[in-house]
Design goal:
Layout lengths: L7 H12 L7 H20 L4 H13 L8 E3 L6 E3 H13 L15 H12 L7 H25 L7 H16 L3 H14 L5 H6 L8 H16 L8 H4 L4 H4 L23 H14 L6 E8 L1 H4 L9 H5 L3 H10 L15 H6 L3 E5 L1 H4 L7 E8 L4 E3 L3 E2 L10 H12 L5 H13 L7 H8 L4
Parallel strand pairs: 3-4
Antiparallel strand pairs: 1-2, 3-5, 5-6, 5-7
Helix pairs in contact: 2-4, 2-6, 2-19, 2-20, 3-4, 4-5, 4-10, 5-6, 5-7, 5-10, 6-7, 7-8, 7-10, 8-10, 13-16, 19-20, 20-21
């Protein structure tokens, strides 16, 4: 049985990191945190009109009302004021269901999806928060969430969704901005872990739904835990932070900045499909492969990827947890955007005609490299009989193969362009650098993404 007793020395180091008012984040990490922030906002904007996003925001407006004006926050790209936890939950759910947000390979999941909406919700109550202070808090929360996720995966057999551990990053963020003491932080982390959604990831992979990666509930629980703890509500120590068995995962806190090691997704579908997608993309670019020339396409990938949805999806959730559909879409259209995984994109007969040409199998050497990498290789047989082989390809977008600023900006326009005019997208992008200026206010960015209702 895991030791669940309080571990004062182990926790003290975490608290010193989270609550240190002079926390020094390396400039490289702070700059990349700003990039991750803007990229996540692009996904939030791109997801505005998804059915699940509308349901989530309307639900928050109907059932997550704030009892007083000081308890509320506006929902991003919506403007309606709801409770602080409700705002974080609705927007995290929205982002989670357009699967183009950042992630960190060792956690097998995602951080920004929960901590970015929470940052905006908490920041409404700190109007003088500077851009650099906000980015420092954001980077800190990435570090806490990453280690909580790795610790959870290392100490349990079941594969839990990101909401089970990114809730701790949200709680740490809230406590830092509130300037709590160590004891309050300890209870907030304990409440977050105890109530975090220990939902089974592979259950969702096998049955794709709007539940997605549990990050909406992670944001809700993390925000609620902070607010409860500041009122004196007590929680048992967080095992993923204080158990002796997880100590090695926290030893480099403040030394290794994992936030700079997060990946940015080129495609709004499950990262597990990206190795195969990038292998196909390379053949399309280097060999001129087009859909009309393809007789068959065979994919060898890791076990989790091979379990992705295999046919023509009926829902956006199935489309984002797909492999063959994603490959067919990329082959036909040259890119994957929100329009391809929703609405009429789910009924595209030309995409449907390509899916039977694609076969998928597990390759042990790729499985052995998961979760540190997302490797696949493909063979494309052309109508003239030639066979083109990709070789082993790891998903790009991470530190080993980063996207350029131009590619990230192009992605921002592709994702957010369905709900925002180009000039507003450019203004949001400009805040990536502006937030780093000593005199910048975080509210300047908030004004661009939380319009009046």
């Amino acid at each position: 049985m895991t030791n669940t007793r309080a571990n004062d020395r182990q926790f003290a180091a975490i608290a010193d990191f989270v609550l240190d008012p002079q926390l020094a984040v390396p400039e490289e990490a702070l700059t990349f945190a700003s990039t991750l922030l803007i990229d996540t906002l692009g996904i939030a904007a791109g997801a505005v009109d998804l059915e699940v996003a509308t349901i989530a925001r309307d639900f928050a407006a109907d059932f997550h009302g704030a009892g007083a004006s000081g308890h509320g926050a506006r929902m991003l790209f919506d403007g309606r004021r709801v409770s602080l936890p409700g705002a974080a939950w609705a927007v995290a759910t929205q982002i989670d269901n357009l699967d183009g947000h950042d992630g960190y390979n060792p956690t097998k999941g995602h951080i920004g999806v929960a901590v970015v909406p929470a940052l905006f919700a908490f920041a409404e109550h700190h109007p003088d928060l500077s851009g650099r202070e906000a980015l420092t808090a954001l980077a800190m929360s990435y570090e806490v969430a990453a280690r909580a996720g790795i610790a959870l995966h290392a100490t349990v057999d079941d594969y839990h969704t990101s909401g089970a551990w990114n809730a701790l990053g949200v709680a740490a963020l809230g406590c830092r901005l509130a300037g709590t003491d160590n004891n309050t932080l300890r209870h907030a982390l304990g409440i977050s872990e105890y109530h975090g959604p220990r939902s089974q990831m592979m259950r969702e992979i096998d049955n794709p739904t709007m539940l997605h990666d549990g990050s909406g509930m992670g944001a809700l629980v993390g925000c609620s835990a902070t607010l409860l703890a500041t009122r004196g509500f007590q929680g048992a120590p967080a095992i993923t932070a204080e158990a002796p068995a997880v100590a090695p995962h926290w030893q480099d806190l403040g030394q290794t900045w994992t936030v700079a090691l997060n990946y940015i997704k080129p495609y709004p579908v499950c990262r597990w499909a990206h190795g195969a997608l990038d292998a196909l993309r390379a053949l399309m670019i280097n060999e001129g492969v087009v859909a009309a020339d393809v007789r068959s396409l065979s994919v060898r990938t890791f076990a989790e990827s091979a379990r992705l949805f295999p046919g023509m999806p009926e829902t956006t959730s199935q489309a984002q947890y797909s492999l063959t559909f994603a490959l067919a879409t990329l082959l036909l259209h040259g890119r994957i955007g929100p329009e391809h995984i929703s609405g009429q994109g789910l009924k595209d007969p030309d995409v449907a005609a390509l899916i039977p040409k694609i076969s998928v199998s597990e390759e042990p050497r790729h499985s052995a490299r998961f979760p540190q990498g997302r490797w696949s290789d493909i063979d494309v047989t052309l109508n003239d009989g030639r066979v083109l082989r990709s070789g082993d390809v790891n998903a790009r977008g991470g530190p080993e193969s980063p996207m350029s600023d131009a590619e990230i900006l192009e992605k921002l326009h592709h994702m957010a362009g369905y709900s925002l005019p180009a000039e507003r997208i450019e203004a949001i992008w400009a805040m990536r650098d502006a937030l780093l200026d000593p005199g910048a206010k975080f509210s300047d960015l908030a004004a661009l993404v939380t319009p009046a209702p």
